[in-house]
Amino acid sequence: xxxxxxxxxxALVIHHPGxxxxxxxxxxxxxxxxxMNPGHYVSLIIPIVPPAGDHDTRRxxxxxxxxLLRPTETLLLGHAYRLVTTEEVLRVIKAKKTANLEKMKKxxxxxxxxxxxxxxxxxxxxxxxxxxxxxxxxxxxxxxxxSISEIGA
Length: 153
Prior knowledge:
By secondary structure, the protein is an alpha+beta fold. Helix content is 39%, strand content 22%.
């Protein structure tokens, strides 16, 4: 009898958008796969296993993390890959960009509110420090310069 698990580990699997699965038993570059499937990018599927403390007795794997590959990268045996359409990639990039812009705007607004409050606090403190002396009356600031003696000629 043969060892079936060894054959599965010695193959790479490419999932097509239509549900078709393609098995390859040799390494291949991402550029070649993209040439065979125009309008698609190749992405590596990274399995994320939930923690062992979950109530579900069955261990399920969620494929939530996907890494887009460059054309120069090589698809390795034992890994699963997925073909992603160009439209899907552009949609995800646009969504990420929008989310980042919204996050930056929110951070800028929060920072603006903080700096305004800090300026108000600093301004009132500085006025109290510079204008009021120990006796409580107003003083103007005068620089104190020490004289420098010149050594003989």
